[in-house]
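Section 5.1 Outputs to date
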Amino acid sequence: MFPNRQSLLSALLFILPIAACQAASWLDDPLRSEASAPAWFACPALPPAASLSLYTAASQALCHHPQTREAWAQVQAQQAQLGGARAAYLPTLNATLQSAREHARTQTPSMPYLDTDSHSRYRSDTLSLNWRLYDFGAREAGRDNARALLDAAQAGEDVAMQKVLAATAQDYYAAVAAQAGWQAARETQAAAEQSASAAARRVQAGVAAISDQLQAQTAAAQARYALAKAAGALRNAEGALALDMGLPPDSPLTLPPASALDPSAAETMRPAAELLAAAQREHPSLQAARAQVAASRAKETQVRAQGWPVLSLVARASHNTQPESLGTGLPQVGARSQDRYVGIQVDIPLFEGFGRHYQARQAAAETAERQSQLEDAQMQVAHEVWTRYQALETASANTRITRELLDSAQAAFAAGKARYEKGAGNILELLNVQTELAKAREQRVEALTDWLSARLQLAASVGRLGLESMR
């Protein structure tokens, strides 16, 4: 009990907005066919982090990329279709309200005393009800078809998400690798400048020919050229990553060093048979294909069931105030009429020109087509998993080999440089070990990039590439 009217008014002012919001939500989706928007739909603000993480880049790409938003719109459309299929179980109620003004005039030249001229206004109200009670499973098949299509759309959303994640991660790793390549080119350029300085000192001391200095300067110029190319490749890679995130291509990005992504601490690879089985179970493209097969089968059942009788409950109530005339020459008088009935109606399709027969044959053929597409998708997924599994094994081995190669090349360059400065070696030996060091650095960056890409592509081929796995 409220103590006074003011408290009651305050309570109503508090409750009514909440009730209005709940009513609006119910009216927007009364059959509860829609799910809430995915977490990535709302774009989070970019955190002021020291370096850009893969998770942050992927989060921004998901919420900005048009493919993910298109996939979510398709899910919403299928959710609405499922709501429409559920609505077929509810009755339909129609009301017709009519208000009219009528001018009726009758003339009989041979008997003018029978002429009439009347003006009247009347209303006619009709309320009709139709409720389908039984239809041999047509509504159920339609609902199953809509639900399967929704499952397919949701699996398609997962496919779109994985494609966007894979592309973003590919560009992210490419940018990190380009940064590593630029850093390697800087180190190579610095080593070439050191070799050129050493050659110049030996020429000035008169212990080396001028050709040593010229060859060393040529190598330094080539290193500067390679550094400029590496800087351009880095800018291109950063621009592609920024566009994935919905940013201008010239946005400044701070990326982690490639050493933070070194594969030495990577998890042990699972057996290929286990990954193949997981892909057949979990890959979203296969889930979408299976849902399409289920939808085709439900459509076939629905088409066949639509050729059977339909049992419905029908009701009608009407009220009419249109005036009536008791005979020719008599004026209209006020009248009221009412009509009410409730009954059972059976609609029996007797002959449709064999149209239903061919529609059923078309639905059966579409089911067979969907089944073939599913089997083809299963073969493609198995092929991708096996190919990318082998690529990851090769890339993992190459990362170990290039690590040893880089260590050996660095030691060889240090020894060759020391020998040249002491006069025990010649310029060709120094330039040779310098070239081998630059090649080893490039191969190390390439091997690391291949490993990151192969690891990513294998996860995508299995269907386990998710946003949370990128933290």
